[in-house]
Amino acid sequence: MSDQLIAHRPAALAQGAPRRTAPRRGRIRHAVSATLLWAVAGVFMLPLVYTVATSLKPAGEVFTSPPTLWGSEIRWANYSDAMNYLPFQRFILNGLLVAGLGTAVVLVASTTAAYAFARLRWRGRDSVFLTYLMTLMLPQEVLVVPMFLLMLNFGWVDSYQALVLPWAFTAFGTFMLRQFLLTVPRELDQAATIDGAGRLRIFWSVLLPLARPSIAVLAVFTFITYWNSFLWPLVITTSVEEKGTVPLGLSLFFSQQGSQWSLVMAASVVSMLPTVALVLLLRRHLVSGIATAGLGGR
């Protein structure tokens, strides 16, 4: 019996050898992937690091030859100077107001429209949705002039509602949430109906909690779009220092007397903080939302 075990041992060892090398190959593959990801992340982080470093340089050391990452001293006063050089606090408050209201309107409009297109049956539903979806092919530059004339007829030029409402009813959010709602089994609606829930109750208590990750993704995208919008606020706003947003405020640092690059960089760093805070606040929902939003449908 012992001779048979000894005879079979080399074969068993030979069969077990590939099993030991497989985890090693997996670890090597994981290490290579992690290294590449960190390298790509480092490349994308370079502009941010340069912006922060330049915001802390003295004004005369921004364009030195040879270029240096850090200046001879760290000037934290650049941030206070940037806030006092222009009414930048006003621009930030205006940006938060416009982006916050715009995000709220987009979420309400997109969730209700997505529910109507995904769960309700009515004549011409698919044709209306296709027509609505075709508006995504129109760039903003094409719509600026007719939208401005419409705001002029309403008397909304240089107003907050003109900054918020014209772009709050786009098809992007409706399409993304509709695709997610199509993946939710209709048996949930039927079960809620048997329990006595109406359509509004099903929408509020059943579907919205399930769509929370997708709603978080839409909220982040919408907030960033409103926050970074430059063309439409430039066209519709006449009193820039009173109703201007952050991109318009940053443009005021460039004048015929020259550009205060250290102050521009300091203001740019401050302008990134609200979007970073929003992403960190919703980070738990973003990963699952990006993985599932807009990928389903049946």
Keywords:
single chain, 298 residues, mainly alpha, two-stranded antiparallel sheet, transport, MetI-like, membrane
List the helices and strands and how they pair.
Elements: H1 2-55, H2 77-85, H3 88-119, H4 125-134, H5 140-154, H6 160-164, H7 171-181, H8 187-194, H9 199-210, H10 212-228, H11 231-236, H12 240-243, H13 246-251, E1 254-255, E2 258-259, H14 261-281, H15 283-292
Antiparallel strand pairs: 1-2
How would you portray this structure in words?
- By secondary structure, the protein is an all-alpha fold.
- Helix content is 74%, strand content 1%.
- It is built from 15 helices and two strands.
- A two-stranded antiparallel ribbon has the order 1-2.
- Strand 1 and strand 2 form a beta hairpin.
- Helix 2 (77-85) packs across helix 14 (261-281).
- It is flat.
- The protein starts with a helix and ends in a 6-residue tail after the last helix.
- 24% of the residues are buried.
- The model is unreliable at 293-298 (pLDDT under 50).
- It is a multi-pass membrane protein.
- Residues 92-282 form the ABC transmembrane type-1 domain.
- The chain crosses the membrane at residues 28-50, 91-117, 129-154, 160-181, 202-227, 261-282.
- Belongs to the binding-protein-dependent transport system permease family.
